[in-house]
Amino acid sequence: MTRIDLHTHAFSAHAAPKVLSGLVALARRSCPGFAPHGDGTVADLLRAEADAGFERFAICNIATRPEHHAYMAKFLAALRSGAMGEEARRRVIPCVSLHPHDAEAEAHLKALVALGARMVKLHPYSQNVPLDDPAFLRLLALCRDAGLPVLCHTGHDVTAGEADLAGPRLIVRALDAVPGLKLVCAHCAAWRHPETVELLLGRPVGVDLAFQPATGVEPVIRRFAAEHPQEHLYFGSDWPWASPAEHAALIASWGLPQARLEALFGGNAARLLAR
User: Fold this and answer.
1) How many of the other CB atoms lie within 10 Å of CB of 127?
2) N or C, where is the chain less crowded by C-beta within 10 Å?
3) Which element (helix H / strand E) includes 185?
4) What is the pLDDT of residues 80-104, one digit of tens each?
5) Which three-class secondary structure state does DSSP give residue 87?
6) In 3D, which of 258, 240, 196 has the Cα closest to residue 34?
7) Please, are residues 105 and 142 in contact by the beta-carbon 8 Å criterion?
8) What is the Cα–Cα distance from 211 to 156, expressed in whole angstroms?
């Protein structure tokens, strides 16, 4: 079985120090223990995933402005050409993002698919658009129609204010509005949303098991790992905010059946990404 980490982040060597320091400063207001487990670069991510035994992983860039579709195209072109290195070309899953307010999102998505995009990452907080906003729903429908799964940040965000942009009630509205969407809810929508168990646990929607221990949501994540439909479980480390090796070892320590472990550590992701 190929082990797959569906949820990581990485930045250029030039940008990584500034990006990480800014995010840490924001996050520590509500999550004092928040700290990176790497320097945020692709090179360090490759090392961390190799050390953890993950053969493939998605780098989940986020389009924080409508014009960032151009950056996504450059990222895919660099990945395909080997400009990011041969190891990255072989191991990084081509993941892209578009902004809900991109007026040409349909054309831009088609262009990204032609460049090899296999998944879309969306983040209501970083994009400042609620998950059930008509613009967000339109983008979700475009992803569905293109046959691409969507990994979306859900639950509250440690860098954000108090607004609910991605809670479980908004997820349910989005799923009802966009039937057939292949959605993976990052973090199980757990932080600051105890109703996620009532609203999402057992529902046929994907969840990734990424979480910050300092937020205290581990019991909720463990319930999803043990009780959610096996075919809808995914491993995500959220590197550099968690060590893939340590996070995988923690999940493995929960005593889950071997079949569930194989499904969540790569089997489900391989099927989700197949085209």
Assistant:
1) 26
2) C
3) strand 183-186
4) 999 999 999 999 999 999 999 999 9
5) helix
6) 240
7) yes
8) 11
β-bridge mates for residue 4, sequence order:
56
Q: How far apart are CA 106 and CA 169, in angstroms?
A: 27
Could you give all domains of the chain from N- to C-terminal order, each with its CATH number? 4-64+121-273 (3.20.20.140)
At residue 218, what are phi and psi to the nearest 5 degrees? -55, -40
pLDDT interval class at 1 (50, 70, 90): confident
- Residue type present at position 98: L
The structure tokens listed for 99 are 């902004």
pTM over 0.85: yes
Q: Which residue in this structure is represented by tokens 């082990």?
A: 3
Give the residue carrying structure tokens 């991510």. Answer: 45
Please answer whether residues 185 and 229 qualify as being in contact, where contact means their C-beta atoms are separated by less than 8 angstroms.
no
Q: pLDDT tens across 7-61, in order?
A: 999 999 999 999 999 999 999 998 888 999 999 999 999 999 999 999 999 999 9
